[in-house]
Specification:
By secondary structure, the chain is an alpha+beta fold. 39% of the residues lie in helices and 32% in strands. A five-stranded mixed beta sheet has the order 1-5-4-3-2. A hairpin with a 5-residue loop joins strand 3 and strand 4. InterPro entries: PH_domain, TypeIITA-like_toxin_pred.
Length: 96
């Protein structure tokens, strides 16, 4: 099982979700990521990856990988906030 760490920005976003089913789906995807199966994921540049969750408003999780053993969940969002979220994720990944 891979180590998963969560940035404070990601924790705050996840804690603020009122969509309980969406939160459960996100947590299930994080578990799959820890097991080595990221699912529907693509690179958005600067060593940042976007994990798409096809539920609700189109949730996204942005993460980076460090030394092939640890994933840092940077920030989360949805399709509507995608452009801003990618910019923030790249900034956070650069400043780890």
């Amino acid at each position: 099982m891979l180590e998963i760490r969560k940035a404070e920005e990601f924790k705050a976003w996840l804690d603020s979700l009122h969509d309980l089913m969406g939160r459960a789906k996100i947590q299930a995807r994080i578990k799959r990521l820890a097991e080595g199966n990221p699912g529907n994921t693509k690179s958005v540049g600067s060593k940042v990856f976007e994990m798409k969750i096809d539920f609700g408003p189109g949730y996204r999780i942005y993460y980076t990988q460090h030394e092939n053993v640890m994933y840092l969940l940077l920030i989360g969002g949805n399709k509507r906030t995608q452009v801003k979220d990618i910019q923030i994720a790249k900034y956070l990944a650069k400043n780890i």
